[in-house]
Protein: Carbon-nitrogen hydrolase family protein
Organism: Paracraurococcus lichenis
Amino acid sequence: MRVSVIQMNQGSDKAANLEQARRLVEAAVEADRPGLVTLPETWTNLGGGRESRRLAAEALPPEGSGAAGGPAYEMLRGLARRHGIHVHGGSMIEDGGEKLFNTTVVFDPAGGEIARYRKIHLFDITGPDGTGYRESALYGAGDRLVTFEAGGVTFGCTICYDIRFAEEYLALRRLGAEAIFVPSNFTLQTGKDHWEVLMKARAIESQCWILAAASWGQYEERGATRSVYGHSLVADPWGHVVAKVSDGTGWATARIDRAVTARVRRDMPVLEHRAARRVDFEAAARRVDFEGAARRVDLDAAVRPATP
């Protein structure tokens, strides 16, 4: 399956964001003929403060109902139907009633919703320049992992800050994922130092393809200008970046080659090794040797034999 990762420069004007996304998806489909396209995180809104986010939010129809949704939801569904492709909607702002959610929806070529994922790990950090980000002040967190099948490939869903939590990616691998989405709004400061290395690390650890559509450029947030890193990419299960977007809006396309996945997993069966040789790290941390200021953990002693 060929997958295109779309890179946008969205702002606080929802209608303009929808038009930008439509134009880029249609250009990618015309040029590269992908079977699946994926958009960035919160592609319907970036910036403008709380009120702007609330205005951009959409209440989603009940899962599996086939009912109509809001403008962004219906645009994604229409793109899937019109072009006969799967559309992974990056993430959009979901109006969940008392809370907003940072939510992915996925449509099949008939326009049916086949997956929905709410971001689990919320971006509550202080950047290197002292700028604070408190996603939990406005958004609720998801509580379940999500996979879906398209074109014979099992895909897993994550969003942006999830990338820093390797256990989520290993859990998706155990659920059968062969490729994992990471729609993102990485800040410029974190992106230039961490973006590519994190994407490659998760690909190597999970032995999955990583599909990371990102936002690029500047946006306004309560009178201040902020920058996002972009550099949307596809990494293979060996950690090679096989497709990447330059600065600016655009897209990159790569083919998900299941033979590559199978070869990497066969030659380095790390999942089987994890099952066969388990270390109880919490127990190991309690078995501590002190020599002066040194703290040593005897991991060999902590290894438990595999259960027959």
